[in-house]
């Protein structure tokens, strides 16, 4: 398989669809960043994606990122998009430019501690489980608002916005209410904090156009760029999960 050829053609089509979605709602396509999700794919795929102009990559497991990132071009920047266990925080702080999946005060406190040791600030998104699915990680909206003050008090965390993985549906219109809810929750957080939060990370291969219409500033795209993943490589806990090891 020729990664560069595949990714180049797919990216052109994705960019066209993002522009069209922006046009429908009067947004500037420059506000929408593609996070290319490379889980299960080899460094050669990242290299080809970088050659196509992609710069920001998402991995959902620290263990996989640890092996992959050193083999990828240095210009690639990495976001963690899967659940983070406290015992992997130290490593995550060393590997990732942003952690999109902060889902508890416990993990935030550990990020604070490890970022301080590393002498850095860590940009983060707060992951929200907007539909209250028991199979998924993420804050319940009420709980997020309760803990927001404590999270915001952590000097080494730079809270840049919210992220969600909504329920899957073959009809992206059915997912729209969840994206809308995340946007409204971001407004509520901004009101509490008294500062704007720049990012809404929402939208995957099946529903990114609807997410863009609802205000996404980051869309996390795997399949639509790289093709289907070998399902055998996925953990049984689901795509968003960090396997316990
Ligand atoms: C795998 C994954 C994606 C990308 O999924 P696709 O449907 O392949 O685009 C996005 N976000 C998270 C959290 C993921 O785990």
UniProtKB/TrEMBL annotation:
<protein>
    <recommendedName>
        <fullName>Pyridoxal phosphate homeostasis protein</fullName>
    </recommendedName>
</protein>
<dbReference type="InterPro" id="IPR011078">
    <property type="entry name" value="PyrdxlP_homeostasis"/>
</dbReference>
<dbReference type="GO" id="GO:0030170">
    <property type="term" value="F:pyridoxal phosphate binding"/>
</dbReference>
<feature type="domain" description="Alanine racemase N-terminal">
    <location>
        <begin position="10"/>
        <end position="228"/>
    </location>
</feature>
<keyword id="KW-0663">Pyridoxal phosphate</keyword>
<feature type="modified residue" description="N6-(pyridoxal phosphate)lysine">
    <location>
        <position position="39"/>
    </location>
</feature>
<dbReference type="Pfam" id="PF01168">
    <property type="entry name" value="Ala_racemase_N"/>
</dbReference>
<dbReference type="InterPro" id="IPR001608">
    <property type="entry name" value="Ala_racemase_N"/>
</dbReference>
<dbReference type="InterPro" id="IPR029066">
    <property type="entry name" value="PLP-binding_barrel"/>
</dbReference>
<comment type="similarity">
    <text>Belongs to the pyridoxal phosphate-binding protein YggS/PROSC family.</text>
</comment>
<comment type="function">
    <text>Pyridoxal 5'-phosphate (PLP)-binding protein, which is involved in PLP homeostasis.</text>
</comment>
């Amino acid at each position: 398989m020729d990664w560069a050829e595949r990714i180049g053609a797919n990216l052109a089509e994705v960019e066209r669809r993002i522009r069209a979605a922006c046009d429908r709602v009067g947004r500037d396509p420059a506000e929408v960043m593609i996070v290319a999700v490379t889980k299960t794919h080899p460094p050669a795929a990242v290299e080809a994606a970088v050659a196509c102009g992609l710069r920001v990559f998402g991995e959902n497991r620290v263990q996989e990122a640890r092996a992959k990132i050193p083999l990828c071009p240095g210009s690639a920047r990495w976001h963690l998009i899967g659940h983070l266990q406290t015992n992997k925080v130290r490593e995550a702080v060393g590997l990732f430019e942003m952690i999109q999946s902060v889902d508890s005060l416990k993990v935030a406190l550990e990020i604070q501690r490890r970022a301080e040791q590393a002498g850095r600030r860590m940009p983060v998104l707060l992951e929200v489980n907007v539909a209250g699915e028991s199979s998924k990680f993420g804050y319940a909206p009420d709980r997020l608002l309760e803990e927001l003050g404590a999270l915001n008090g952590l000097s080494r965390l730079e809270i840049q916005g919210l992220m969600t993985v909504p329920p899957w549906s073959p009809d992206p219109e059915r997912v729209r209410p969840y994206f809308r809810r995340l946007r409204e929750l971001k407004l509520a957080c901004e009101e509490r904090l008294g500062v704007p939060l720049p990012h809404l990370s929402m939208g995957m291969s099946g529903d990114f156009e609807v997410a863009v219409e609802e205000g996404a500033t980051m869309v996390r795209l795997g399949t639509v760029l790289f093709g289907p993943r070998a399902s055998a490589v996925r953990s049984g806990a689901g795509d968003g999960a960090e396997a316990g090891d």
